[in-house]
Design a protein that fits this description.
Elements: E1 7-9, H1 18-33, E2 41-44, H2 46-55, H3 59-66, H4 74-90, H5 95-109, E3 115-121, H6 129-132, E4 137-141, H7 144-156, H8 161-170, E5 179-185, E6 191-196, E7 206-213, H9 217-220, E8 227-232, E9 237-242, E10 248-252, E11 258-262, H10 265-268, H11 275-292, E12 296-303, E13 306-314, E14 328-329, E15 336-339, E16 341-344, E17 347-355, E18 369-372, H12 380-383, E19 388-391, H13 399-407, E20 411-413, H14 418-421, E21 427-431, E22 436-439, E23 443-444, E24 468-473, H15 479-484, E25 490-494, H16 496-500, H17 506-511, H18 515-532, E26 538-541, H19 547-550, H20 571-577, H21 579-594, E27 600-604, H22 610-622, E28 631-636, H23 639-643, H24 645-651, E29 655-658, H25 660-668, H26 686-702, E30 705-708, H27 716-724, E31 729-732, H28 737-760
Parallel strand pairs: 17-18, 18-19, 19-20, 24-25, 24-31, 25-26, 26-27, 27-28, 28-29, 29-30
Antiparallel strand pairs: 1-2, 2-5, 3-4, 3-5, 6-7, 6-12, 7-8, 8-9, 10-11, 12-13, 14-23, 15-22, 16-20, 17-21, 21-22
Bound molecules: phosphoenolpyruvate (PEP) and magnesium ion (MG).
Phosphoenolpyruvate (PEP) binds near residues 494, 637, 660, 662 and 710.
Function: Catalyzes the phosphorylation of pyruvate to phosphoenolpyruvate.
InterPro entries: ATP_grasp_subdomain_1, PEP-util_enz_mobile_dom, PEP_synth, PEP_util_AS, PEP_util_C, Phosphohistidine_dom_sf, PPDK_AMP/ATP-bd, Pyrv/PenolPyrv_kinase-like_dom
Cofactor: Mg(2+)
């Protein structure tokens, strides 16, 4: 044994103690040491867990169960996970360990009877909770027997199906993984939530606070639309408040666990935080940010006039503050070793890791620079870890580009030869804005690093425009970042990223009679986005995955091999020919509408003839949807749909949105993902503009909202043209919103001024 005790109190813990107390435990100890108001707690260390495994002789059976497990077979995986969890849950905890925990619990009880048990991952061998969704937390525990049960439940969560899958794919050994459990006084909060010490997207000195009634789990899990407060740290005042109807709250229930209950109508619309509380929370944010040296994502709880801080970790969406601190590259042109398209802004340097195919993703470490021919959905877990991404193939709208932008990771795509000329371990610098790769680490940090150096842009939410500026989202985990831009809604939610992430085709769920599972996965993902945009339109697009992306998934074995999947069996054509698959999606949307999400609109991709819209609408009607009272619209991605726009309007579309990524490729026959013809990919080609103009004018005349959600909607030049031609909304990537909002505002002002000058002859 290592000599580390089974129990450590917060006061004994520092941030270096992750191997014993896990990330959560170490962070709490560090926070307490700098005087943040952290509720008292002790940690059952990872050494205690190991001792439990050894003394109960569980190591061997667990090893047997998990060794050479085929994790790609879901049934085998689920059954092994169930058995492993049962082994851990049912084993009898050694008496001396029980006694130590009881003694510590007795001591903790002096400050409050109710406690929470939170799993605390000890290394990279467990993904973050958003990926695994498996690390248990048990809230509201009263009594030692309940506590011991909860601790075993947390330990058992190390063997959840997704955690096992993740470790297998990442090459971690199940035999050596560890887990610690934080046992902490539960704050029976009247209100609670999260805060970002600096703006989570731009890094500006704005504290963003979200909160709701009851325990913070309702905010963290996205179950409620929280109030939102923006506190300007320089002016020291609250500059924006958004009070949302807080319909439910999560509260302690009896002696174990929580319940979700309705909030009485009289409290739903009440502003939960006073200006004074917002200011105090912001101060704690600043203390933590200054201590750790990077902006923090924190959880807080309030009872009476007491504030507690429950969690503090770096904001990952700012990507190592790379963008916030405005680093610059100081290098001569001759250290540029590669060039491609800058697909996701930001600068990062680190060691190269070459990924030939998905089997290599286990090699990827935090901070590496991932080099690959082209990314695919299986690589997303690894893409979350890396500092930057570089691909051989692809253009601004390929998988790597879309996912990197949402993750906020710098990326350069279409370099043609990155995998050939770079080698593992080589240190490089990637400029995701300019599309350049430099040899060596040549990032020049700001003159004096630190938040005070952050360049301050105008708060994006403050510019009001007549043309709505919406945001594109592909991954629910990006919803909060997307909402933090202040966008007027979501102009495109691509669901294929969500579905491809399940690793099983919709057809697999149908064949295995697990339709409900599919519906609930899809529904939960979409709900996260809807909740992030209360009262604002969210246009969800029906499935548009080409056959080649389905083929690697379970259930995708019989996908047809197509010469050109881009022109193949995808989008609405496939859904209309696969009624069962379409029905799964419609049932999901219907449930959301039934739950009251009337901001949900549905958009059909790849339509080429109005009859496809009519047939699709009919399927919705047959599924019991009140089709005249929901927003159904189409993407204009095929020239045919722009030419026939008037017939679409007659067929009853409520909105149309230009998918220029495809519209351009189909109009001028340039493959959007082929780096050999990238130079000829021309968004403002006169033929493309003529099609767009035709459709805008017809939609305006027909009173139909007309928007754009292709990449061209993130380009100021194109957006200027679109606003001049009367588009009613634009939808851009998260990183482009501030710039696009400014472009739209300037263009609108110029149009108004020009009109006034004309009228008054000045
Ligand atoms: C488009 O074609 O412009 C679009 C937004 O869809 P996708 O990029 O998913 O094909
Ligand atoms: Mg498209």
């Amino acid at each position: 044994m290592t000599g580390v005790p089974d129990i450590l109190w917060l006061e004994e813990i520092r941030k270096e103690d992750i191997p014993s107390v896990g990330g959560k435990g170490a962070s709490l100890g560090e926070m307490a040491s700098i005087g943040l108001p952290v509720p008292p707690a002790f940690v059952v260390t990872s050494q205690a867990f190991r001792r439990f495994l050894v003394q109960t002789k569980l190591e061997e059976p667990l090893h047997e169960l998990l060794k050479s497990l085929n994790v790609d077979d879901n049934e085998i995986l689920e059954s092994a996970a169930k058995k492993a969890k049962e082994l851990v849950n049912r084993a009898k905890m050694p008496d001396d360990l029980k006694k130590e925990i009881s003694t510590a619990y007795e001591k903790l009880r002096r400050s409050g009877e109710i406690v929470a048990a939170r799993s605390s991952a000890t290394a990279e061998d467990l993904p973050d909770a958003s990926f695994a969704g498996q690390q248990e937390t048990v809230l509201n525990i009263k009594g030692i027997e309940n506590l011991l049960n909860a601790i075993q439940t947390c330990w058992a969560s190390l063997y959840g199906a997704r955690a096992i899958y993740y470790r297998a794919k990442q090459g971690f050994d199940h035999h050596t993984v560890n887990i610690a459990v934080v046992v902490q006084q539960l704050i029976p909060s009247e209100k609670a939530g999260v805060l970002f010490s600096s703006h989570p997207v731009t890094g500006e000195l704005l504290t963003i606070i979200e909160g709701s009634w009851g325990l913070g789990e309702s905010v963290v899990s996205g179950a409620v639309s929280p109030d939102k407060y923006v506190f300007d740290r320089r002016q020291e005042r609250t500059i924006d408040r958004l009070i949302s109807p807080k319909i439910i709250e999560i509260v302690p229930d009896g002696n174990y666990g929580t319940i979700t209950r309705d909030v009485e109508p009289s409290r739903q619309e009440v502003q939960i935080l006073s200006d004074e509380e917002v200011k105090r929370l912001s101060t704690y944010g600043i203390v933590s940010e200054e201590h750790y040296g990077v902006p923090q994502d924190m959880e807080w709880a309030i009872v009476g006039d007491k504030i507690f801080i429950l969690q503090s970790r770096p904001i990952t969406t700012i990507k190592g503050v790379v963008t916030a601190k405005k680093e610059t590259v100081t290098a001569s042109a001759d250290s540029v070793i590669l060039q491609g398209q800058g697909a996701s802004p930001g600068i990062a340097c680190g060691p190269v890791i070459i990924i030939e195919d998905v089997r290599d993703i286990g090699k990827v470490k935090e901070g590496d620079i991932m080099i690959t021919r082209m990314t695919n959905p299986d690589m997303v877990p690894a893409m979350r870890k890396v500092a930057a991404i570089v691909t051989d193939e692809g253009g601004m709208t390929c998988h790597a580009a879309i996912v990197s932008r949402e993750l906020g990771t710098p990326a350069v795509v279409g370099t043609r030869k990155a995998t050939q000329i770079l080698s593992d371990g080589q240190i490089i610098t990637v400029d995701g804005e300019k599309g350049l790769i430099y040899d060596g680490a040549i990032v020049q940090p700001p003159a004096a690093a630190g938040p005070a150096q952050t360049t301050v842009a105008a708060a994006p939410a403050k510019i009001i425009t007549a043309t709505s500026v919406k945001v594109n989202v592909s991954m629910p985990e990006a919803a909060q970042r997307a909402a933090a831009t202040g966008a007027d809604g979501v102009g495109l939610l691509r669901i294929e990223h969500l579905i491809l992430g399940l690793n099983k085709t919709p057809n697999w769920y149908i064949q295995n009679h697990r339709e409900d599972e599919f519906i609930s996965e899809l529904m939960n993902g979409i709900k996260v986005v809807l909740d992030a945009f209360p009262g604002k339109p969210v246009w969800v697009r029906t499935l548009d995955a080409p056959t080649d992306e389905f083929r690697n998934m379970q259930g995708g074995e019989n996908e047809p091999i197509e010469h050109n999947p881009m022109l193949g069996w995808r989008g609405i054509r496939r859904d209309l020919q696969s009624p069962a698959q379409f029905r799964l999606q419609i049932d999901t949307f219907k449930r959301l509408w039934d739950l009251g999400y009337d901001n949900l609109g549905i958009m059909f991709p790849m339509v080429s003839h109005p009859r496809e819209f009519i047939l699709a609408k009919e399927q919705f009607r047959q599924a019991g949807v009140d089709v005249e009272n929901v927003d159904l619209g189409v993407m204009i991605e095929i020239p045919a749909s722009a030419v026939l726009i008037e017939d679409f309007i007659k067929a009853g579309i409520r909105f149309a949105s230009f998918g220029t990524n495809d519209l351009i490729q189909y109009t001028i026959a340039i493959d959007r993902n082929n780096e050999n013809v990238t130079d000829m990919y021309w968004p403002k080609h006169p033929a493309v503009l003529a099609l767009i103009d035709t459709a805008i004018q017809a939609c305006r005349k027909g009173g139909v909202e007309v928007s754009i959600c292709g990449q061209a909607g993130s380009e100021p030049d194109m957006v200027t043209w679109l606003v001049e031609h009367g588009i009613t909304s634009v939808s851009s990537n998260i990183d482009a919103i501030a710039k696009i909002r400014e472009t739209v505002a300037k263009t609108e002002q110029r149009i108004i001024l020009d009109a006034a000058r004309k009228q008054y002859g000045c």
